[in-house]
Amino acid sequence: YFNHLMALQMTGCEPVLVETDGDLLPDVDALEAAFEASLRRGDEPTKRPLRLVTVVNPGNPTGTMVPEARLREIAELCARHRAWLVVDNTYEYFAWDSQTPHACVEGDHVINLFSLSKAYGAMGWRLGYLVYPPSLAPDLAKIQDTVVISPSTPTQVFGAAALRLGRAWVDERTATLVEPRRLLRDALEAALGVGAVRGGSGAIYYLATLPDDLREDDVGVVTHLVNDFGVATIPGSACGAPGTIRVCYANLELDACREAAARLERGLRAIRSEAR
Length: 276
Fold this sequence. Notes:
Shape: globular
Number of helices: 8
Distance between the termini: 33 Å
Radius of gyration: 20 Å
Number of strands: 10
Helix content: 40-55%
């Protein structure tokens, strides 16, 4: 998730991007290789081994839910290398594949992030919470007091109400996304081909691979879509996935989503035709 990358860069960390596997899931072997590479540069040992791993579950921009077994592998690998694992569970309630429900892992080296913003329809309120090992409490209290201090009073009232409503309230509303999700996938597959649409087992996104002749300019594609067809997407290059576009199927009423899907399909077909 690109905001995590920016946050790490702002704090002076040296980010290491690890490849996903063919299903857009975190690749445990690639992560193991990254740990080993961080211990030595050539024949010389380094003084900066990997200290922290971040995973977004389900992913953004991929919309891919990470299976519990894979999360446990990553947690165990981080424990062996004495590294922290931070898991962002912002879209925990947006699970579309019954075979891969959302799961959490815990441990003395694991921090779980949760957000009320997406599930409870309050994106601008920016309210969430952490689940963390007790050893971190003193340092987190310092950060809270010097950076955040506290959410505004109305935001705290909202948060308390959201927790009382719970998962059942969210499930009623996520059910309304089933048809928009289908509409957007159909539009992408019609314009780009079935194999081009990836992810989507969680969150509110699809990641679509552009044709070969368009992959070098995903920014140009999304600019063309918004300027000439009135539909907004995000270039994959902004998320570490050049040659793709991220498409969101939430936040629109059904009729508006039908129109957006039609514009998206029409726009992608036109852009492909122009590129030939």
